[in-house]
Amino acid sequence: MTKKVGKQTFKPSSPPVIISTAAVSGPFEGQGPLGKYMDHVYTDVTAGERSFEGAEKEMMTNACFTCLNKAGKSPPEVDIFLSGDLLNQTITSGFSALELAIPYLGIYGACSTSAEGLALAAMLVDGGFAGLVLAAASSHNSTAERQYRYPTEYGVQRKPTAQWTVTGSGAALVAPAGQGPVITYVTVGKVTDLGIKDPLNLGAAMAPAAALTMIQHFADTGHGPEYYDLIVTGDLGKFGHEMAVKLAVSRGGFDLGKNYRDCGLMIYDTEKQDVHSGGSGCAASAIVTYGYIYKKLLKKEFNKVLLVATGALHSPTSSQQGGNIPGIAHAVSIEMT
Amino acid sequence: MTKKVGKQTFKPSSPPVIISTAAVSGPFEGQGPLGKYMDHVYTDVTAGERSFEGAEKEMMTNACFTCLNKAGKSPPEVDIFLSGDLLNQTITSGFSALELAIPYLGIYGACSTSAEGLALAAMLVDGGFAGLVLAAASSHNSTAERQYRYPTEYGVQRKPTAQWTVTGSGAALVAPAGQGPVITYVTVGKVTDLGIKDPLNLGAAMAPAAALTMIQHFADTGHGPEYYDLIVTGDLGKFGHEMAVKLAVSRGGFDLGKNYRDCGLMIYDTEKQDVHSGGSGCAASAIVTYGYIYKKLLKKEFNKVLLVATGALHSPTSSQQGGNIPGIAHAVSIEMT
Question: Which residues pair with B312 in a beta bridge?
């Protein structure tokens, strides 16, 4: 009777459609190879606001309004707004929800937020509860770095495993019917703990969660890695990407193959842009999926994509108390039919 | 075609059943008038853990396992765990999800989390996605006060409008069928901003959201305040409760009547226990609803209850930057049939 498939996967009875998306980014991301896929690239990380937090909120509201405009919709037509970000009390989302004035359900999945929002949007639409759900996620380098690690002015030397928090925001509009790629499966992840304690190596904290969610998705659906034109993890970076490839083999016997990429490695030119292990943050998977991938799906350059957004449940408080940094990953199967 | 009723309310086609709940609290809450309804009262706020954060996590996992045990269920039988708390990065929920090992979707609604979790649980169950959803929420005085306001050792003088963060956790298990009260409607709130800037007066920040969500619920469902045996807001406290009563009249023309109470005022003996304006925190509505109200519903001493959990989207960062503190409230209609 339930739409559950296997152990952790859910299959909508009538695949919800992503009728519109939008992605905006900071200037540094705009200089990367996917810059041309952004709907707007800010010329300044402040986005004209008085605080970096204000800038992040400006980016999210811009992504949301752009997404709605593209579909010819206005906020009062949207039933539910699902959103999350990295800031304490997810203030980017809260203040954006205030401006949008759409009934709001806040989510927290660290950098897995894009997939969590998309998964819940699909379930609420397919469950018959909503005709339109707007899902958004954001991060900002200048808000996240100082909250999670060191004041940016301090100029701490970064380790090779460190990643660069992506500045930007992405939004998607999900409906029961319409033009666009559809959501065929969602796999809800479990929190996974490999014992990582280093907040400058979050790729390692998230890689096991990514691998286990992918393995479970393959097992639950019977669709192996070869089924997809593209499998993207959210923000594992170089080291995490390598780990995920190895773990998929060692834990599940799956060769992720050459179609497996990581959003954190796609955003920047990792040869020329000094981001160490790659990009990270909720915006990594959000702007790659809602900017680049969505447009490629519309053109049928991709037909079957598995988004596996990855989150490190890193807290400065628990980390400073000696706690581990667990990870989580949710997968959403997006297909152009 | 959708299950939307009016502007912000959703009606499950087959009302999901709350088949089990559990509530645990700290010692101070145990001394209050509802202490006897708790499944467990800790004798110490550390709950035997090395940190207050560890204590809060112990309380949430205890509430979750107790809730499952009462229903004769184990974590592998649960499809989705929905949880949130007040701590940055919602670590109580994240670490509890790790221990429970149930596929996890993190939520953030500040103190409105209990109703947000229950609303989403009802929608996921009624949408056919889950046979069992576990929803939890928690707060802890010693973790929240120092994060949001001042170090507790500092002993800052509290204003009359200040509230006391409730220590405890509550959990509910929602299923498509079974014994227990059912969820007949959920009303998803909008973020509301009255311009409050004082983190020691969160009742005022939340009261407009509570009033507007109640007014919308009454308008959407056609069920006025008189329909319910009990209407409870989450944690408005004395001042917020008074404001909500006035706003319901001035904004919507509704007399909330004598059946309207506030969980933050029910937990403590406000004459004898020095909590100023009353209790607050995610646990306020969670332990009152999942401890006291649920048991009264089972005995049919209440038959129709409207839970209106209220959240202040208070962030020390945005507050110190001069931002307002917006509020949100979600309503869940729980009926014993």
Answer: B327
